[in-house]
Design brief:
3-stranded antiparallel beta sheet, globular, 11 strands
Length: 175
């Protein structure tokens, strides 16, 4: 399994629409899926995966640089404030901060039929020095046609719903 494959997936899903060079808009579709058969994740490498609380709901995000979290646009839609928590479980967070600015993709579409450009950047008021950001990978490390044809495993990390409908614990799984 390639190291950091969940970041490659994020790179593929989130950077393509931001770096499109043509006049034709490139749309990225997101899918809502639970973390099935995941296991609790306490890895030091995944401490940059954060829990977001807004408008009575919750989402996962990734600290991609000091002071910046990348998350899904549907998490930010309509949010007036977002609190960002660092740690592995809602019962044991190590620190928190507020998003000072919320930047929803300008071409975000979120309806019951389709979701496109499902990207949001959060500028944070502060970042814990103990958490190392997971930077967005360059295009040269994106998933290739060879990776797809070889059906490489991808690693997913987040606070999403598990197969029992539970949430609040950072989990990891591969597919």
């Amino acid at each position: 399994m390639k190291s950091g494959l969940f970041i490659i997936l994020l790179s593929l899903l989130f950077t393509l629409p931001l770096s499109a060079c043509s006049d034709q808009e490139q749309k990225v579709h997101s899918q809502f899926q639970n973390i099935i058969n995941g296991t609790p994740d306490t890895s030091t490498a995944h401490q940059a995966v954060v829990y977001l609380s807004m408008n009575g709901g919750a989402c996962s995000g990734t600290l991609i640089a000091d002071g910046w979290v990348l998350t899904a646009g549907h998490c930010c839609e309509g949010a007036s404030s977002i609190e960002v928590y660092f740690g592995n479980s809602t019962s044991s967070f190590t620190s928190s901060t507020m998003a000072s600015h919320i930047y929803l993709h300008p071409n975000y579409v979120g309806t019951t039929q389709e979701v496109y450009n499902d990207i949001c950047l959060l500028s944070l008021q502060s970042t814990p020095s103990s958490v190392t950001p997971i930077p967005i990978l360059p295009t040269s490390l994106a998933i290739s046609a060879t990776d797809v044809s070889n059906q490489i495993s991808l690693e997913f990390v987040g606070f999403g719903l598990d197969e029992y409908g539970g949430s609040g614990v950072k989990e990891t799984t591969t597919s």
